[in-house]
Design goal:
The chain has eight helices and 17 strands. By secondary structure, it is an alpha+beta fold. The chain is elongated and about 70 Å long. α2 crosses α3.
Amino acid sequence: MSNSTDVPRGGSGSGRDDVSGRDGRVGSDHTGSDRDRDRDGGASEGGAPEGVRLQKVLASAGVASRRVSEDLITAGRVRVNGEVVRELGRRIDPDNDKVAVDNVSVQLDTTKRYVMLNKPVGIVSSLADQHGRPDLSVYTAQFEERLFNVGRLDAETSGLLILTNDGELAHVLAHPSFGVMKTYIARVEGRVTAQTIARLTKGVDLDDGPIVADKARLLDSSAGGSLVEVTLHSGRNRIVRRMLEVVGHPVVELVRRQFGPLHLGSLKAGELRDLSRDELGALLTLSRAAKTEASNG
C-alpha cells in the first residue's frame, strides 16, 4: 500500500522543470518583503490595491514559478472568472475568484486534498462502519486532513474511489443531477449478445424505476462468461449489478475503472495516491462546468 508521504501534495503534473511545488517558491525572484506586501494587498493605510497579485497566487498554487506565471499571464493563457487576464498588476481574491490556465481550472486553496484509492473487495465505503466491518478509515487515517469518500462502492465492488476534504467538489461529483460519468468493467455469467447490450442502452426496468446505461459494450464473450463495460451517471445503489441481473447475466466480479476524467490506470487494489496537478485540473474543470450548466439550466 502506498503511504501518503510518498507523493508530493501537488502531484507530478506535467513534469516540467519550471513548475514549482505547492508553496510556489521555485524560481521566485521576490524577497520576503515583496511577499509581505503582496499578501497585505489593500490592508495598508496607504490605500494599496486589495487582493493578491495573480502571479503570486499561481505560484502558491503550484502552477509554476512566479516568473513563469508572469509569462503565462502576458501570453493570455490565464483566465480569472472566465475572462482572459494579461496585466501583471492584476490582483484577485483567492477565496472567491476562479482561475484557469489554458482553460484548465486551478485549485487556489492549498488546504484541499484529493486522493485516488483503488478500493479492494471487502472494504465498506464508510469511515466508521457500525457493524465493525473493514472500512475506509484504514486509508483516511494516513492523512493529516480529515478526508471523506466521494460516493460509494459496495463491499463486493473494487475500483476507483476519491477521498477528499473538498465538500463542494464532492457534491458535484456524487450527485447524479450533474451527470458525472462512471465506467465499470463487469465479469458476468453466461454469453452476452449484442441484443443484450442494446437492452442496456435502451433501458431496463428495476424495482426502483427504469434505468438506461449511457454507454455499454461487450469486451469478451464465451459460454463460460463475458466481460462487459458499462458507463452511466446514475448513483443508485448497486445499479450495475442490478441492471446486469435483470438482463440475465449476474455479476461475478465488478470494478470501477473511471470516474469522470480520472482513470484507475495501474494503481493496484489497496493502493492510493494524490491526484496529479493535471488530474486535479481536469476534475475541477468538469466540476465548474457542471455547476455552471446546472445553474443556467
